[in-house]
Amino acid sequence: MKTTDILIIDDDKNIGQLIELYLGKEGLTTAVAYRGDEGLTAFEELHPALVLLDVMLPGMDGWEVLKQIRRTSNTPIIMLTAKGETFDKVLGLELGADDYMVKPFDAKELVARVKAVLRRARASEEPEREISFPGLSINMKSYQVVVDGTAFELPPKEIELLFFLAGHAGRVFTREQLLEQVWGFDYFGDSRTVDVHIKRLREKLWREDASWQIKTVWGVGYKFEVK
């Protein structure tokens, strides 16, 4: 099944490409649909984490797309429109939109809104507190890591970093993204902190015959990889 972070439904190709560019810099995967009906189909196929939805669309307008999505899903939706009337804002929110931006908008502000809505959505979900792979178990209730039957007591940030990476197996994260996700949005420390914690995790836990590893992606960051 295909998955993506952000689905953009907008008939303006220039806007779609601009949003893709800025979100891509944040490590978010994107897909674009230029018609309302195509966007609804893409939503059902891609299961995105968030939808950026224009109001004025060919095929099916944004209001109808919003209503169709809300019949089956609570996926966060940010409405994009050239209209700025209070009525349209209220209508969008009443139909179930999570946020609303009027064109023309600042791309950096849009990225900030996207990240804020995603954080709220993720915070409202009941988090998975235990992850298991062959030879590895991470339990965040007890803050314990078990490797090949041996329990390890690790510093909290090492466990949280391992848990986050393992919970997104196969996905590459930059050092800055890991600092934001594990240390917090307001952390202003050196990004080399991530390198130090990764080094310690490898030294303590990794085995030659392990079916998993924390892999360095040169020039980008790190990812948890299952063989």
TrEMBL record:
One of the protein's GO biological processes: regulation of DNA-templated transcription
Function: May play the central regulatory role in sporulation. It may be an element of the effector pathway responsible for the activation of sporulation genes in response to nutritional stress. Spo0A may act in concert with spo0H (a sigma factor) to control the expression of some genes that are critical to the sporulation process.
Keywords noted in UniProt: DNA-binding, Phosphoprotein, Transcription, Transcription regulation, Two-component regulatory system
Domain OmpR/PhoB-type: 128-226
Source organism of this protein record: Gehongia tenuis
GO cellular component term, pick one: protein-DNA complex
Matching Pfam families: Response_reg, Trans_reg_C
Gene3D superfamilies membership: 3.40.50.2300, 6.10.250.690, Winged helix-like DNA-binding domain superfamily/Winged helix DNA-binding domain (1.10.10.10)
InterPro entries linked to this entry: CheY-like_superfamily, OmpR/PhoB-type_DNA-bd, Sig_transdc_resp-reg_C-effctor, Sig_transdc_resp-reg_receiver, WalR-like, WH-like_DNA-bd_sf
Ranges for domain Response regulatory: 5-118
Modification 4-aspartylphosphate, positions: D54
Domain of life: Bacteria
Name by which UniProt lists this protein: Stage 0 sporulation protein A homolog
DNA-binding region: 128-226
Gene Ontology molecular function terms on file: phosphorelay response regulator activity; transcription cis-regulatory region binding
Cited SMART domains: REC, Trans_reg_C
Entry annotated with the keyword Transcription regulation: yes
